[in-house]
Description:
Blueprint: H1 4-13, H2 18-40, E1 43-49, E2 52-55, H3 56-71, H4 73-96, H5 101-123, H6 135-151
Antiparallel strand pairs: 1-2
Helix pairs in contact: 1-6, 2-3, 2-4, 2-5, 3-4, 4-6
GO cellular component, one term: membrane
Organism: Arcicella rosea
Protein name: Putative membrane protein YGL010W
Amino acid sequence: MKTINQWLDEYGESHQNPTNKTVHWICVPLIFFSLLGLLYSIKLSFFSLGNIQGNVALIVLTLTLIYYFNLSKPLSAGMFLFSAICLFICYLIEGSAFVPLWQVCVTIFVLAWIGQFWGHKIEGKKPSFFKDLLFLMIGPAWLMSFIYQRLGINY
Length: 155
């Protein structure tokens, strides 16, 4: 199994262009949120936590956080915090009843991926996940690693 630094370094190889990096700072969190929101929209009738009905997002997120924990305990804490914020936003959107959460998330997902591919066109390199699908999970951790570096937190 690769170390977190190996994953982050390899991911960073196709993310050198400043414009592409900026696009990633916007689009990667939006893609993470939109996927989580889509999974949050799939309810599980046999599972609930207080007023919150269980959903597929909680299961997938638990497995994802275990993966992050195995790569880096400190980064997994940051990803847990970001995930909790995303879940709270899903809860708020779902409760607003203006537009169904899944519709909001499909729109965000499509627009964010258009942005990602535009960024990679500028970069001149294919997205990392074309090489290994696990890079889809590394992208958010790659961004979190920059936040940790800025804050002086080892990961």
